[in-house]
Amino acid sequence: MTGSSVFALVMRRFAVAIPLLLIISFAVFSLVHIAPGDPVRSLLGAHASDPVTLAAIRERYHLNDPFLVQYGKWLTQVAQGDLGVSIQGNRAVTSIIADRLGVTIFLSLMSTVLVLGLGVLLGAVAAFHRGTSIDRAVVTFGVLGVSSPAFVTGLFLLYVFGALLQWFPIFGPGTGFLDRAWHLTLPALALALSVMAIVVKITRAAMIEELDRDYVIFARARGLSSPRIAFAYVLRNALIPVVTAAGLIVVGIVAGAIYVEVTFSLPGLGALTVDAVQNRDIPTIQGATLVFSVFVVLVNLTIDVIYTLIDPRVRFGRVES
Amino acid sequence: MSSPASGETRGTKLPWRIPIVILIAALILTVVVVCAVLGDKVSPDSPFLQRLRIGDTPPSATHIAGTDLLGRDILSRVIYGARTALVGPVVVAAGAFAMATLLGLVSGYLGGLVDSAIMRWVDFMFALPGTLVAIVVVGVLGGGYWTAVVVLIVLFTGPDTRIVRSAVLEQRPLPYIDAARTLGISKTRILFIHILPNVLTIILAYVVLDFAFALVNLAGLSFLGLGVEPGAPDWGRMVFENRNILFSNPVALLLPAAMIMLTAVSMNLIGDCLFERLAK
Quick check: A163 and B250 CB within 8 A? Predict the structure, then answer.
């Protein structure tokens, strides 16, 4: 495969992602207008206001322009990093989001590591012991994980390991790397448990399929050790479907993070979104939603590209992706 | 999709053999349904009666699950909560099912431009982070529980449409469709009288899964303070309102949380079971 065709492929994915981002941004922009009541009120909140202020707000957010012109101007501002001013505290939304981003990124990365590590491990173990009680235990655990929302799992973890056993702190994000990891262990675990089931299920199914293939029998016949067959050959092939599901995993983690942050009172982007929604702080809702959505779209785009690069069948166009 | 191994590990597949887990799941669901239907008959106390003097108390002989900050009986509130826990998800599952069946049938059978238009919309719905959309739309629009139900129907229709469509695409090349067309039977009749019954079983298995997912989502929105109105006896809302009494009466939030989990797990187990029996 030549470099130029990879480039063409990446460009094709971009061609899909850009309209998607535009639609999302348009929907986010429209929030001001679909909120019940006067848009000025939505942007200003419950603050007392005189006609001069109202006129100033109208001017600031171009509310006197036609709808599409407003959108164009808003999008230009967003592209320049200006997401407006929060109703609560009168701060720039961009700087509020910047303050909150650290906790969410730390939490998400930590649970991604847990999801991939534990999920692949459990899925592989279940596949090797297929049909046994170990297998059934893992599968049942998967159903539990899928059914239990992150805030319920989090609540039980918080009660058992935080309140009863007092092994972990139950409040706040901590400072410094180790302390933060310590504070975020339970939240990351709660988040991971609700998403992990997908990885367990896919890894298990893929491993079982791979284990039945001729090359495994051949490798056994040649006297290769079981761990070598498992890790060097089977797992490698079985991980391709897991990469396909990476999009689902990322969306799951982003959605779960919102609930987990609220459950554990963590000052992250998810808690900010919920807080803004509860206080009808439209500019902050717009900013946070935009950051989340752009993140999800970009991650999906990256996964598509990676998937294309690692699976030669897709790369050479033999399989409809 | 179910894994290739699950069929062979089960060994003999007799239609009447029901696994014990499924029986327990069915039992839990029956209890929840009974609570939802006969809430006022089976609850020991009024779920709304406040006893501000006693406030939050741990479980005791008079209040088996204790009371919340306003002195309301937790057990009665949990029993009454079965209602909002079931009604919304049933409406969501039924609504998404109806829309997805219609769109999926049309998209899968007609193909062409209609199909591409519907599928691009489905792709778009897939690309959205659904939970975030639900939180933001319900929060901004207001309207609580029923707005949430409508939003979830729209969000669930996308993935469900894809499932119905692929089931329809499997039916399309089969001889009975050709036969029906040769006989000059109208497209509408072929779609609804001939194809629909053949894809209905697979759709039904997904409807059960939809129900479980809707339950979890609605409870989640109530937990964020966005679902049912304040004070309503609802499991998600109870977890939200009783967060501050985790130490004085942990049962006040752990019981409703456990109910959310148990109901959803039961529904998922039954859905998975149905899926394996029906969709193969």
Answer: yes
A67-81 residue pLDDT tens: 788 888 888 888 887
Average pLDDT over all residues of chain A:
81
Q: Which chain B residue's Cα is nearest to A22?
A: B124
Complex ipTM value: 0.81
Which class does domain B90-279 fall in?
Answer: mainly alpha
pLDDT digits (tens, 9 = 90+) for B101-133: 999 988 888 888 888 888 888 888 877 778 888
Where do the structural domains in chain B lie, given as residue ranges?
90-279
- pTM for the model stands at 0.83
Burial of A318 (0-12, 13-18, 19+ CB in 10 A): exposed
Q: Which residues on chain A are in Cβ contact (under 8 Å) with B267?
A: 147
Q: Which chain B residues are within 8 Å of A36, Cβ to Cβ? A: 141-142
The reply to whether residue B250 touches residue A273, judged by beta carbons under 8 angstroms, is no
- pLDDT, one tens digit per residue, over B46-59 is 888 777 777 777 78
